[in-house]
Amino acid sequence: MALDAPASSAVLPPQRTSKRPSARGPKLIAAIVLLVVASAASLAIGARPISMETLVQALTAFDPANGDHAVVASRIPRTIVGLLAGAALGLAGAAMQGVARNPLADPGILGVNSGAALAVVLGIFVFGVTNFTGYIWFAFLGAAVAAVLVYAIASLGRDGATPVKLALAGAALSAGMVSLLNAVLVSSQQTFDTFRFWQVGSVAGRGWDVIVPVLPFLAFGFILTLLTGKVLNSLSLGDDIARGLGQNVTLARALTALGVVVLCGAATAAAGPIGFIGLVIPHMVRSFTGPDYRWILPFSMMLAPVLLLSADILGRVILPPGEVQVGILTAVIGAPVFIWLVRRRKMAEL
């Protein structure tokens, strides 16, 4: 009982309490508004632009004979996939950074997305998987194996799994898995044809047959990961203090890792390996929420789809009549941020 007062002050140091809950309310509303605006823009902007009036009519009084309404209807699954994949990757990235105390953690950088992609390719090549239900299980398996391998490799040596070692291990393992993936694709034209449009990361061409199977997995991952906010706050103080506060550190990390693997596996199976979303958004969110993961997680979940949908919209209009896949644009946005983080030594740990 004597630890109650110090524990409270340890969990919420001055920099956490400086962000008053009342100040977060307008920001939460602003995040919701941005999400709605990005979703509307995703439905309206493309090779065939749709006016806002027509968009509202298509959503409220759909006319199958109206060509503009049909275009809006065709963009709805694409937008929903973008919302779900962006939310999953943003939330997973924030949780990964918290559980590893590593500002460089991201499903793409640490090789989780590459592991999922390699597993999907092997599923296509070895087992002849061609449907989404098969993709998702292989994606889960690959994401889990990659996460375990990266952490095990980074843990070797005297200092354990430091942030820089995790980033290097993830980059090295990701490069190796991509090389193996390409070797499989080169040796099988059929596998390449099945995989090539999925590989770069895209929300284009996805339909309800992708959305419906992935929803239960994403719902489980969202709920589990959002509930880890208090646990991640304790882990951010260090393992010893977290144990002193009554946390089961091993169980906390295992549950958080489970949520991350489910989110990354489902998002990668649905939209392909899209990188850097989980790196950029949590750092942006911390600039106005502070280090409290009870707020970082939901804000990351809401704002990551805004970035993904914005990149998708940009990809539709910069090279008409073709499109640039969203996975390419998120890499263009995220790579400079990653380099900046690596060069900032004071951000070596969270």
The whole-angstrom Rg is: 21 Å
Strand-pairing-aware structural class:
mainly alpha
State the CATH class. Answer: Mainly Alpha
Please tell me what the overall shape is. Answer: globular
How does this structure look, described?
The longest helix is centred in the N-terminal third of the chain and has 34 residues, at 67-100. The chain has one domain (45-347): ABC transporter involved in vitamin B12 uptake, BtuC (Orthogonal Bundle), CATH 1.10.3470. Helix content is 76%, strand content 0%. Helix 15 crosses helix 16. It has helices spanning 4-11, 14-17, 21-44, 52-60, 67-100, 112-127, 132-155, 163-187, 189-199, 208-226, 229-235, 239-244, 249-271, 277-289, 293-317, 326-343. The protein is an all-alpha fold. The protein is built from 16 helices and no strands. Residues 1-18 and 345-349 have low confidence and may be disordered.
